[in-house]
Design goal:
Elements: H1 2-7, H2 14-65, H3 70-76, H4 78-84, E1 86-89, E2 100-102, H5 108-120, E3 124-128, E4 135-140, E5 147-152, H6 162-201, E6 204-205, H7 214-261, H8 269-294, E7 302-304, H9 306-319, E8 323-326, E9 337-339, H10 341-358, E10 361-369, E11 373-380, H11 390-394, H12 402-405, H13 415-425, E12 429-434, E13 441-447, H14 453-457, E14 467-468
Helix pairs in contact: 2-5, 2-6, 6-7, 7-8, 9-10, 10-13
The structure holds adenosine-5'-triphosphate and magnesium ion (MG).
Residues 288, 350, 354-355, 358-359, 380, 382-385, 393, 398-401, 405, 411-417, 440-441 line the site of adenosine-5'-triphosphate.
């Protein structure tokens, strides 16, 4: 509708909108005021000046009436003509037909002049404003024949209001410039808050201090509180997971060692083998826990060739005996992107591992999405995951349909969760769908690496201000004011 239509032409940014809100009323007001004012002013003044010329002309006509010949009339009115600045020709050289009016169409004030003169001078024969922009020529009826009078246009029209317009324009521009500067200072804190929130969403903690108007400061302080709380929680979770995993390792190692000693004491070997398998499985489980706990505590992003990274992951899976193929990457997928390479590779490992485990054949491809985004796709020919269970599958420790996967070995249920966590740390997401080509699951790891230079350099020696959200190492969460 109308508003939808209007919306297309309204600027999207806060700055543009604020400027529009500021400018529109001012410009509209100025235009209306100047039009009304100029018109009024012009018309009134022009009418008054024309009236005084009407008086002059009446005076002249009276004087001419008292004489009997053109020559006598001219002589009689010499002083009068000089004083009133009227240039008189009697009789007129080329009398115009009665009622002739010549006026340029854009000569707005001329309309008032013509109307006033025509109303107030019964003897008026013709009036010509178009012959010269400087003069007014009128022809008047007298007993001695038509008389032509030329006088300056200045006598009937006020000088142009250009000055007024120029002053208004100059001050308008000046004031707008000042307003823009103030506006920008008011909007900058909001932009900063937005940037800090966006960075935090991608797992980066950038320095931010609430500033600006009261409401913006309040929002900024709330954001800081929220950020601190989330950081604390993440750190707690990470610390707990890695603590538990770490502490479980020691007794497990002892158990494994103990098991390897058992045959000497005469226990039956098949039982021992089974127990050893269980222990190995538990160790794998703990490794997965640790991996999950550290998914966020990764090394800083470094410029990485995505195609090469995918090739590495595929090569690794092949060595492990998987039937994995890498689709030829498009050229633009070779341009380096700031990635936490190890983490992304681990996410790919998990996805390829799933594809090989639950399907048979896997296909990996890389694509560039627009300027900054990047997509790794892993497809397989397995049973896939029904749409209504995809969200569930990505949850930590979720294993679907155990019966179906029984012969495929047991996972912990962390693979997809880790991949999703890593995607989020890159400002992206993990998307599950059905593979059109192979019929199984299609997992898209979409990454949107930060385009800001600080994103690529974060954690560098030169940029200590920015840091990753608390990860594996034990670091005190800084308190914000
Ligand atoms: N390619 C796939 N095809 C079919 N089902 C899948 C596929 N990938 C994952 N799933 C289902 O989603 C569940 C969760 O997968 P996820 O990778 O998170 O855990 P997992 O493979 O069971 O264990 P882990 O990867 O931690 O060893 C799996 O148990 C499986 O049922
Ligand atoms: Mg898995």
């Amino acid at each position: 509708m109308f508003f939808a239509w209007l919306k297309r032409y309204v600027p999207g940014g806060l700055y543009g909108r604020a400027a529009l809100i500021l400018l529109l009323p001012i410009v509209a007001l100025q235009v209306v005021v100047s039009i009304v004012f100029i018109q009024r002013h012009f018309e009134d003044v022009t009418r008054q000046m024309s009236r005084s010329v009407v008086l002059d002309l009446g005076h002249l006509l009276n004087e001419v009436h008292e004489t009997n010949s053109p020559a006598e009339a001219l002589a009689h009115t010499r002083d009068l003509r000089r004083d009133l600045e009227l240039d008189v020709t009697l009789p007129a050289a080329d009398p115009a037909p009665r009622g002739t009016v010549r006026r340029l169409f854009y000569d707005v004030s001329g309309r008032t002049v013509v109307a006033t003169l025509a109303d107030d001078i019964p003897e008026l024969r013709a009036i010509d404003l178009a012959r010269s922009s400087r003069d007014v020529t009128v022809q008047l009826e007298t007993d001695l024949g038509p008389m032509e009078v030329v006088f300056s246009r200045r006598l009937v029209t006020a000088s142009n209001p250009h000055q007024f317009l120029v002053i208004m324009g100059v001050f308008g521009v000046l004031m707008t410039a000042v307003a823009f500067v103030y506006l920008r200072n008011q909007l900058r804190p909001i932009t900063r808050l937005a940037a800090a929130a966006e960075a935090f969403g991608q797992g980066r903690v950038v320095p931010y201090r609430p500033a600006g108007a009261r409401e913006v400061r309040a929002a900024g302080a709330a954001f800081l509180d929220m950020r601190a709380r989330i950081e604390r929680q993440i750190e707690q979770r990470t610390r707990m997971l890695s603590g538990i995993s770490h502490d479980l390792r020691t007794p497990l190692t002892r158990l494994r060692l103990g098991l390897s000693m058992l045959p000497e004491s005469g226990a039956s070997s098949p039982d021992i083998a089974e127990m050893e398998r269980d222990v190995a499985e538990m160790e794998a489980l703990i490794d997965a826990f640790l991996q999950f706990a550290r998914a966020e505590a990764e090394s800083p992003p470094v410029p990485t060739d995505p195609a090469e990274l995918a090739a590495r992951a595929v090569e690794k899976a092949r060595r492990g005996g998987g039937d994995v193929r890498l689709a030829a990457p498009p050229d633009d997928a070779r341009a380096p992107v700031a990635l936490r390479a190890l983490a992304v590779e681990r996410a790919l490992d998990n996805l390829i591992g799933n594809a090989v485990r639950y399907g048979g054949r896997a296909e990996v491809s890389v694509a560039r999405l627009g300027e900054t985004a990047l997509r790794f796709s892993v497809e397989d020919d397995g049973p896939g995951i029904p749409p209504d269970r995809r969200d569930e599958a990505m949850r930590p420790f979720a294993r679907l349909d155990l019966a179906r996967n029984q012969d495929r070995g047991t996972g912990v249920g962390l693979g997809l969760a880790i991949a999703q966590e890593i995607a989020r740390a890159h400002g992206g997401r993990l998307e599950l769908s059905q593979s059109a080509r192979l019929g199984g699951l299609r997992a898209d790891l979409v990454l949107v690496p930060s385009s800001r230079p600080s994103g690529a350099g974060d954690g560098e020696a030169g940029a200590p201000a920015e840091r990753r959200i608390a990860g594996g190492e034990r670091r005190p969460v800084p308190r914000h004011p």
